[in-house]
Amino acid sequence: MNRVCTLNTRQAFIRLPARVDQVARAREFVLSALGADHPSAGPIQLIVDELVTNSILHSRSGRRPDGKVSITLTSHSQLIRVEVTDDGGASLPRLREADFCAEGGRGLHLVDALATTWNCARGPYGTTTTWAEVAD
Protein backbone atom coordinates (compact mmCIF):
# COMPACT_ATOMS: atom_id res chain seq x y z
CA MET A 1 0.00 0.00 0.00
CA ASN A 2 1.38 3.42 -0.95
CA ARG A 3 0.48 6.09 1.55
CA VAL A 4 1.73 9.65 1.47
CA CYS A 5 1.81 11.60 4.71
CA THR A 6 2.25 15.36 4.53
CA LEU A 7 5.47 16.83 5.85
CA ASN A 8 3.61 19.22 8.11
CA THR A 9 3.65 16.27 10.51
CA ARG A 10 7.47 16.63 10.27
CA GLN A 11 7.78 13.30 8.43
CA ALA A 12 6.48 11.81 5.19
CA PHE A 13 6.96 8.25 3.94
CA ILE A 14 6.26 6.25 0.81
CA ARG A 15 7.18 2.74 -0.32
CA LEU A 16 7.37 2.18 -4.07
CA PRO A 17 8.05 -0.75 -6.39
CA ALA A 18 11.75 -0.72 -7.34
CA ARG A 19 11.14 -0.02 -11.01
CA VAL A 20 12.44 2.80 -13.20
CA ASP A 21 8.88 3.88 -14.03
CA GLN A 22 8.40 4.74 -10.34
CA VAL A 23 11.14 7.41 -10.22
CA ALA A 24 8.65 10.04 -11.42
CA ARG A 25 6.32 9.01 -8.56
CA ALA A 26 9.20 9.54 -6.14
CA ARG A 27 9.64 13.11 -7.43
CA GLU A 28 5.86 13.69 -7.18
CA PHE A 29 6.00 12.45 -3.59
CA VAL A 30 8.53 15.18 -2.75
CA LEU A 31 6.26 17.87 -4.24
CA SER A 32 3.26 16.48 -2.43
CA ALA A 33 5.11 16.38 0.89
CA LEU A 34 6.89 19.73 0.67
CA GLY A 35 4.66 21.75 -1.63
CA ALA A 36 5.71 23.22 -4.97
CA ASP A 37 6.56 26.57 -3.39
CA HIS A 38 9.04 25.11 -0.88
CA PRO A 39 12.49 26.61 -1.59
CA SER A 40 14.23 23.22 -1.37
CA ALA A 41 11.67 21.24 -3.39
CA GLY A 42 13.72 21.25 -6.63
CA PRO A 43 17.04 20.16 -5.11
CA ILE A 44 15.33 17.53 -2.96
CA GLN A 45 13.47 16.17 -6.00
CA LEU A 46 16.80 15.78 -7.81
CA ILE A 47 18.41 14.10 -4.79
CA VAL A 48 15.47 11.67 -4.47
CA ASP A 49 15.61 10.99 -8.22
CA GLU A 50 19.31 10.09 -8.02
CA LEU A 51 19.09 8.01 -4.84
CA VAL A 52 16.02 6.05 -5.97
CA THR A 53 17.58 5.42 -9.39
CA ASN A 54 20.76 4.15 -7.71
CA SER A 55 18.69 1.85 -5.48
CA ILE A 56 16.90 0.40 -8.51
CA LEU A 57 20.08 -0.07 -10.54
CA HIS A 58 22.50 -1.25 -7.85
CA SER A 59 20.57 -3.09 -5.13
CA ARG A 60 18.71 -6.37 -4.77
CA SER A 61 15.48 -4.32 -4.74
CA GLY A 62 15.85 -3.59 -8.44
CA ARG A 63 16.63 -7.21 -9.31
CA ARG A 64 13.56 -8.69 -7.61
CA PRO A 65 10.13 -8.57 -9.22
CA ASP A 66 8.65 -7.67 -5.82
CA GLY A 67 11.51 -5.33 -4.81
CA LYS A 68 10.66 -2.12 -2.97
CA VAL A 69 12.32 1.20 -2.25
CA SER A 70 11.27 3.34 0.72
CA ILE A 71 11.60 7.12 0.87
CA THR A 72 11.35 9.12 4.07
CA LEU A 73 11.43 12.91 4.32
CA THR A 74 11.93 14.39 7.77
CA SER A 75 12.01 18.05 8.77
CA HIS A 76 14.19 18.88 11.76
CA SER A 77 16.48 21.68 12.94
CA GLN A 78 16.05 23.74 9.75
CA LEU A 79 17.01 20.73 7.61
CA ILE A 80 15.10 18.36 5.40
CA ARG A 81 16.51 14.85 5.62
CA VAL A 82 15.92 12.44 2.74
CA GLU A 83 16.36 8.71 3.35
CA VAL A 84 16.12 6.10 0.63
CA THR A 85 16.17 2.49 1.82
CA ASP A 86 16.55 -0.56 -0.42
CA ASP A 87 17.31 -4.27 0.00
CA GLY A 88 21.06 -3.68 -0.15
CA GLY A 89 23.65 -4.63 -2.70
CA ALA A 90 27.16 -5.98 -2.97
CA SER A 91 28.66 -2.71 -1.73
CA LEU A 92 27.60 0.58 -0.19
CA PRO A 93 27.07 3.65 -2.39
CA ARG A 94 30.22 5.77 -2.76
CA LEU A 95 31.56 8.60 -4.84
CA ARG A 96 33.70 7.36 -7.68
CA GLU A 97 35.74 9.16 -10.25
CA ALA A 98 33.40 10.56 -12.88
CA ASP A 99 33.85 9.34 -16.45
CA PHE A 100 32.52 12.25 -18.45
CA CYS A 101 32.13 10.04 -21.54
CA ALA A 102 29.90 7.56 -19.70
CA GLU A 103 26.10 7.85 -19.61
CA GLY A 104 25.95 7.41 -15.84
CA GLY A 105 28.09 7.51 -12.76
CA ARG A 106 27.58 11.13 -11.74
CA GLY A 107 24.46 10.83 -9.58
CA LEU A 108 26.19 10.85 -6.20
CA HIS A 109 28.29 13.81 -7.35
CA LEU A 110 25.00 15.70 -7.85
CA VAL A 111 23.81 14.61 -4.41
CA ASP A 112 27.14 15.68 -2.93
CA ALA A 113 26.86 19.12 -4.58
CA LEU A 114 23.23 19.73 -3.55
CA ALA A 115 23.21 18.32 -0.02
CA THR A 116 24.66 19.86 3.11
CA THR A 117 25.83 16.36 3.98
CA TRP A 118 25.06 12.78 2.93
CA ASN A 119 26.08 9.23 3.79
CA CYS A 120 24.84 5.67 3.82
CA ALA A 121 24.62 2.75 6.21
CA ARG A 122 23.88 -0.95 6.13
CA GLY A 123 20.90 -1.98 8.25
CA PRO A 124 20.72 -5.05 10.50
CA TYR A 125 18.94 -7.12 7.83
CA GLY A 126 21.22 -6.16 4.94
CA THR A 127 19.22 -3.15 3.81
CA THR A 128 20.98 0.01 2.72
CA THR A 129 19.82 3.48 3.66
CA THR A 130 21.36 6.40 1.81
CA TRP A 131 20.51 9.77 3.29
CA ALA A 132 21.08 13.41 2.47
CA GLU A 133 20.27 16.63 4.29
CA VAL A 134 19.36 19.96 2.68
CA ALA A 135 18.83 23.32 4.39
CA ASP A 136 15.11 23.97 4.91
Distance between the termini: 29 Å
Principal-axis shape equals globular
The amount of beta strand, in percent, is 25-35%
Low-confidence stretches: 1-6
CATH topology: Heat Shock Protein 90
| CATH architecture annotation name | 2-Layer Sandwich
Strand order of the largest sheet: 1-2-3-5-4
Radius of gyration: 14 Å
Mean pLDDT: 89
Question: What features would you describe in this structure?
Answer:
By secondary structure, the chain is α+β, with helices and mostly antiparallel strands. It has a single domain (7-135), classed as 2-Layer Sandwich (Heat Shock Protein 90), CATH 3.30.565.10. Helices cover 31% and strands 28% of the residues. It has 4 helices and 5 strands; from the N terminus they run βαααββαββ. The protein has helices at 23-34, 41-58, 60-63, 107-114, and strands at residues 11-17, 68-76, 79-86, 117-122, 128-135. It has a 5-stranded antiparallel sheet. A hairpin with a 5-residue loop joins β4 (117-122) and β5 (128-135). The model is unreliable at 1-6 (pLDDT under 50).
Keywords:
136 residues; alpha+beta; Heat Shock Protein 90; 5 strands; disordered N terminus
Task: Give the structure's gist in a few sentences.
The chain is of the alpha+beta class and 136 residues long. Helices cover 31% and strands 28% of the residues. The N and C termini lie far apart (29 Å).
Topology:
Elements: E1 11-17, H1 23-34, H2 41-58, H3 60-63, E2 68-76, E3 79-86, H4 107-114, E4 117-122, E5 128-135
Antiparallel strand pairs: 1-2, 2-3, 3-5, 4-5
Helix pairs in contact: 1-2, 2-4
